[in-house]
Amino acid sequence: MSIIEENTSEKRLDNDNFEQVGNEKEKVTQELEKIDMVRRIVEKRYPPYGVIKDFINHLASTEKVFILAGMEKFGGEEIMDMFIESETGVMVSETGIDGDVFAHIKEEFLKTKKTISEIKNVAVKLKDKYSNGGGNYKFIQYLEEDLIMLVDAFDKKDEKDFDVDAEREKAIHEVIVRIAEDDNAEIEELEKIYQEFKDELEKTTNS
Question: What interhelical angle do 99-110 and 134-156 show, nearest 10?
Answer without folding.
Answer: 30
